[in-house]
UniProtKB/TrEMBL annotation:
It comes from the Eukaryota. The gene is Dvir\GJ14202. Belongs to the SEC10 family. Keywords: Coiled coil, Exocytosis, Transport. Residues 160-704 form the Exocyst complex component Sec10-like alpha-helical bundle domain. GO terms for biological process: exocytosis; Golgi to plasma membrane transport. Residues 50-77 form a coiled coil. This is Exocyst complex component 5. Residues 40-154 form the Exocyst complex component Sec10 N-terminal domain. It comes from Drosophila virilis (Fruit fly). GO terms for cellular component: exocyst. Pfam families: Sec10_HB, Sec10_N. The lineage of its organism: Eukaryota, Metazoa, Ecdysozoa, Arthropoda, Hexapoda. The keyword tRNA processing does not apply.
């Protein structure tokens, strides 16, 4: 059992409650033949288990004590070993200190000996070198031609020859010019010859890409006065290769990156050499390339595109090459760029303004030519007003309205083309104009756009559209094209705003020119809005005027006062009006947007309500006619629901309630008048409608109208 207990104790996790449960379960299984529960047997099992567990505890305790004793013995053994190792380590440290002292002593003696040897050898070496120089010098001091020494003729001894002639040249500079003039001339000639050979050797090493030889020769030439010729030779030979065909910009950065790695290895002053390398690219290669490309100014648009492309790519090139420039030359590339394009930038603005003017003018001419339209002076405002006055007073139409067959003379495509041209011009302007000139140039370009797009195109189309709106109170349903003018004008204005926000405002913000821009735009928008409002008002008046005339001539008195019983249906005049108005409402909702849409729909519905209200005031209604009037008003209500105007809906609801006064029995008039809809109306309005009843004379002296007509 003890082994079984150990297995259970070693299980993870061990739970005491589960152990007791298992013990109880085993005891009950052993007594499964018994019919009743035997607590005594369970008690005996628990007592025996407790005894077994005590025995197991004693065994485990004894085992733990043995393990602890073994552990203490091992600790003592390891402690003794560590103590011995520490003693040996200390002994090694002592020996190392002694060895270090001996090494330092020997090193000191060696250094002293070396200094003594150097002190002895240096004068000797100098004497030997001086002797050689004197022997070489003697050859140049002799009269007659110079006896060529092997050191100056042997190509393999070029380095030695360079060292000798450089020192001889330095010595010759201190000789008096009188007696030694010939000797100095000979030395200078040989100096130039050796220098030329070194440069030629350097160029040959560069062609064979022998970096080590180039480095050695560059180091030697750095002591010569023609060192700059070595640098120039390297730059000239490096840039002799074509720059990636016709596009010079593609190959410059890779070429500079490649040669910068070589320059760092070859020259002692790589930053200065690299600056000169890049300077040569700008002053010779780029300048010549730009002048060639910009030489032809006949096609101004092409010239401007080329100038923008070259200038922008040169700026990007400068940014890419700045990493190779020294901190002293931070703004050198910017100055070089300005020098290349100075002449072109000085006259840029004038060409840009001229080009944009020509493009916009050409676009307008092509548009009107495609419409076969000849622009005329729009000075018909006074004539239009006189026509309205005469038509109103004399009830005649003295002239036909020219509507150009529904042509609006507004083109989104034309506007987009102009805006694209202006956008390209403003983009070039931001890059090519100086900081001081940028706001003024941007305003001038914007003025050109506003002149051609808004004044000569949109404003002209609005004037034509205003003249094309039919006169009010015509007998024929008006053909309305001004709503299309409104739609296209709104689209063009939105496109213009988008361009101004993205291209114009960034150029003039935080400058005095910004207020000038805002003022001009506000004046322009006010003019456009005034003409749009005027045209919308005329269009609504034309439609409502037609409704008035049509109902006046087509609505029969018998529609609302039939002599016999008829079917209760809407009148033909009402149905025709509703049928004609529905397309107008659809057109308004299609062409007008934003807050203006709700205002126009409300104004339209309000005027329609006034016309119908006044029209009903001219009629007399019996019971059958009142039913027809209510049907008519219901048709009007269905129609005006499309306006989605709470005010108009309320007005027609009230009109419907007023029409109910024409139908109800006389004894119910008081109740209807005090209802929710009519209770707050002026009593005179209610009284006017009640007077339209054919039985009014009968009921006016009764008590049914008490409090209404008094």
């Amino acid at each position: 059992m003890l082994s079984q207990y150990m297995e259970e104790f070693e299980q993870e996790p061990f739970e005491v409650g589960e152990f007791i449960e298992r013990l109880t379960w085993r005891t009950n299984n052993e007594l499964q033949n018994s019919e009743d529960f035997n607590p005594v047997a369970l008690h005996d099992t628990f007592i025996q288990t407790i005894k077994d567990l005590k025995i197991l505890q004693e065994k485990q305790q004894s085992k733990c004590e043995r393990l602890e004793e073994s552990l203490h013995q091992e600790q003592d053994s390891h402690a003794k070993k560590i103590s011995k190792l520490q003693e040996r380590h200390q002994t090694a440290i002592d020996w190392f200190g002694q060895l270090d002292e001996k090494i330092n002593s020997v090193a000191g003696k060696i250094m002293h000996l070396g200094e003594q040897l150097e002190n002895v050898n240096t004068p000797r070496s100098r004497s030997v070198e001086a002797q050689k120089l004197l022997s070489y010098m003697s050859e140049f001091l002799m009269a007659g031609p110079v006896i060529v020494n092997d050191v100056f003729t042997d190509p393999l001894r070029l380095n030695e020859a360079a060292d000798v002639i450089q020192k001889l040249y330095a010595i010759s500079q201190d000789l008096p010019p009188g007696n030694f003039a010939e000797s100095k001339r000979k030395i200078e000639k040989k100096y130039d010859e050796v220098e030329r050979r070194l440069i030629e050797e350097f160029a040959a090493a560069q062609k064979s890409e022998d970096i080590e030889r180039m480095k050695s020769l560059a180091q030697i030439l750095s002591q010569f006065k023609g060192y700059t010729q070595c640098v120039d030779a390297y730059i000239e030979q490096s840039q002799m290769q074509p720059y990636s065909g016709k596009d010079i910009f593609i190959g410059i950065v890779p070429m500079c990156k490649h040669h910068y790695e070589i320059i760092k290895k070859v020259f002692a002053n790589p930053q200065q050499v690299m600056s000169k390398f890049i300077l040569n690219i700008y002053q010779l290669k780029l300048h010549q390339y730009a002048m060639t490309k910009l030489d032809d100014k006949k096609d101004e648009e092409k010239y401007l595109r080329t100038l923008y492309e070259l200038y922008s790519r040169t700026l990007k090139l400068s940014s890419d090459l700045q990493v190779y420039m020294s901190t002293i030359d931070d703004d050198l590339l910017h100055k070089l760029t300005q020098q290349i394009f100075m002449k072109n930038l000085a006259g840029y603005a004038e060409i840009e303004l001229k080009c944009l003017t020509a493009k916009c003018s050409s676009e307008l001419e092509k548009f009107y030519a495609s419409k076969k339209h000849q622009k005329t002076q729009t000075t018909k405002g006074f004539r239009r007003n006189m026509e309205v006055l005469i038509a109103t007073r004399a009830n005649i139409n003295i002239a036909a309205i020219e509507d150009y067959g529904g042509e609006t003379f507004l083109s989104e495509e034309l506007a987009i083309n102009m805006l694209q041209e202006a956008k390209a011009s403003l983009k070039r302007c931001r890059l090519l104009s100086s900081e001081a000139e940028l706001p003024g140039n941007a305003i001038k370009l914007n003025d050109i756009l506003l002149r051609f797009l808004m004044h000569e195109h949109v404003d002209y189309a609005l004037e034509l559209g205003l003249q094309a709106v039919p006169l009010a109170e015509g007998k024929v349903f008006p053909q309305l094209y001004f709503f299309d003018v409104v739609q296209k004008t709104n689209i063009i204005v939105h496109l213009l705003d988008k361009l101004c926000n993205s291209s114009v405002i960034p150029c003039v913000s935080n400058t005095p020119k910004y207020s000038d821009y805002v003022f001009k735009k506000r004046i322009l928008m006010e003019q456009i809005e005034t003409k749009l409002d005027q045209g919308l008002d005329r269009s609504i008046s034309a439609v409502i005027g037609w409704v008035k005339v049509y109902l006046q001539y087509e609505q029969k008195k018998t529609d609302y006062k039939p002599e016999t019983d008829v079917d209760t249906i809407s009148s033909a005049a009402c149905l025709q009006v509703v049928q004609s108005l529905q397309p107008v409402i659809v057109q308004i909702k299609k062409c007008v947007d934003g807050e203006n849409l709700q205002n126009v729909l409300t104004e339209f519905g309000t005027r329609l309500h006034r016309i119908i209200y006044d029209h009903l005031q001219t009629m007399q209604f019996n019971t059958a006619g009142a039913m027809c009037a209510i049907c008519d008003v219901n048709e009007y209500r269905k129609c005006i629901r499309e306006l989605e105007s709470p005010l108009v809906t309320q007005l027609f609801d009230i009109l419907h309630a007023l029409c109910n006064l024409l139908l109800v029995k006389p004894q119910n008039l008081q109740e209807v008048c005090t209802g929710d809809t009519l209770n707050y109306l002026d009593k005179s309005v209610v009284r006017q409608f009640i007077q339209l009843r054919t039985d009014f004379r009968v009921i006016k002296n009764t008590n049914y109208l008490k409090g209404i007509i008094e």
